[in-house]
Design a protein that fits this description.
Elements: E1 16-22, E2 25-33, H1 42-53, E3 57-61, H2 65-77
Parallel strand pairs: 2-3
Antiparallel strand pairs: 1-2
Length: 78
């Protein structure tokens, strides 16, 4: 942003992340995929709050491609 590099693979970042084009510009999204009974770590929850505090979107899904497709479709539609 503003010509500054963006670090990736920071502790707590979600499994999937990217910029999604919308009618209002690009939005940052992250999707954390959990399997079985796994839960977000403390550092992941902190990262989620950081992303959301900057207007980004962060989702936790349970190993479900359909849910990921629905999330992306709803964001693009807005």
């Amino acid at each position: 942003m503003h010509g500054n590099p963006i670090a990736i693979n920071k502790p707590g970042m979600a499994d999937l992340w990217g910029l999604v084009p919308t009618h209002n510009g690009l939005i940052h999204i992250e999707i954390e995929v959990k399997t079985g009974s796994s839960r977000q770590s403390k550092v992941q929850k902190t990262w989620q709050k950081f992303i959301e505090s900057m207007g980004g979107h962060y989702f936790v899904v349970r190993d479900d491609l359909t849910e990921i497709e629905e999330i992306l479709a709803s964001l693009i539609k807005d």
